């Protein structure tokens, strides 16, 4: 693991984070929705949706596992990285690989943009019904893999919305550290 990276886990609201970028658990339309997506568009104002529409007109939305970037509008964060996690269909439909790609593509975009701090929500574990224990182990493995392969100075923050999710992510992180 790179010595330059700090990973932290907090209980909170993603829209309040003061990292350079926050990640949105979006859908392929990029036109907003409920959960994290709704909260980000409400707090960030119409600028974010406007930029999402421009991306849509260029590339026709965002496929599952991919990521796109907009400004942060009125949010404390300068950027929003929108990714589309997989819908859980029982685990036999490539969900794990797609969720891993969502995290890695957000980190790749952040690196390209020179973003030094990024906050992730627990992608796919709300409306998309991904079991949180499995999602957490994929999320922490993706972050560790990226940090191992890139010199990535900065901070990665997981922002969990309830105590149970926070405990699950911390346990996944500790387990991954033990296995190393
Ligand atoms: N800050 C941090 N985490 C939150 C917040 C918040 N403000 N609000 C909810 N969560 P979800 P998905 C947690 O449903 O499963 C949308 O309608 C929540 O407890 O936001 O990837 C999109 O438009 C859960 O653990 O995202 C898509 O259609 C996690 O964030 C679809 O939902 C993710 O829940 C995406 O579903």
* CATH class call: Alpha Beta
Poorly predicted runs are: none
State the CATH topology.
Leucine Aminopeptidase, subunit E, domain 1
N to C succession of SSEs: EEHHEEHEHEH
CATH superfamily: Leucine Aminopeptidase, subunit E, domain 1
| Main beta-sheet strand count, sense and barrel state | 6 strands, mixed
Q: How would you portray this structure in words?
A:
There is one protein chain. The protein is of the alpha/beta class and 180 residues long. The chain has one domain (6-178): Leucine Aminopeptidase, subunit E, domain 1 (3-Layer(aba) Sandwich). It has helices at 35-44, 46-59, 95-112, 132-149, 163-178, and strands at residues 5-11, 21-25, 67-71, 79-83, 117-120, 154-160. The protein has a 6-stranded mixed sheet with strand order 1-6-5-2-4-3, sandwiched between helices. Helix 3 packs across helix 4 and helix 4 (132-149) packs across helix 5. The radius of gyration is 15 Å and the shape is globular. 42% of the residues are buried. The model has no long low-confidence stretch (mean pLDDT 95). Ligand AR6 is lined by residues 13-15, 25-27, 33-37, 39, 85, 121-128, 159, 161, 165.
């Amino acid at each position: 693991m790179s010595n330059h990276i700090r990973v932290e886990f907090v209980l909170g609201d993603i829209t309040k984070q003061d990292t350079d970028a926050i990640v949105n658990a979006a859908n392929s339309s990029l036109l907003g929705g409920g959960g994290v997506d709704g909260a980000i568009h409400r707090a960030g104002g119409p600028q974010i949706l406007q930029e999402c529409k421009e991306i849509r007109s260029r590339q026709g939305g965002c496929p599952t596992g991919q990521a796109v970037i907009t400004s942060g509008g009125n949010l404390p964060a300068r950027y929003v990285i929108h990714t589309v996690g997989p819908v859980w269909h029982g685990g036999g439909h490539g969900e794990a690989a797609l969720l891993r790609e969502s995290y890695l593509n957000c980190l790749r975009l952040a690196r390209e943009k020179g973003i030094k701090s990024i906050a992730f929500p627990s992608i796919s574990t709300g409306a998309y019904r991904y079991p949180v224990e499995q999602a957490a182990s994929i999320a922490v493995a993706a972050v560790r893999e990226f940090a191992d392969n890139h010199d990535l100075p900065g901070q990665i923050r997981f922002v969990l919305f309830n105590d149970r999710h926070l405990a699950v992510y911390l346990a996944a992180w500790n387990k991954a550290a033990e296995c190393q």
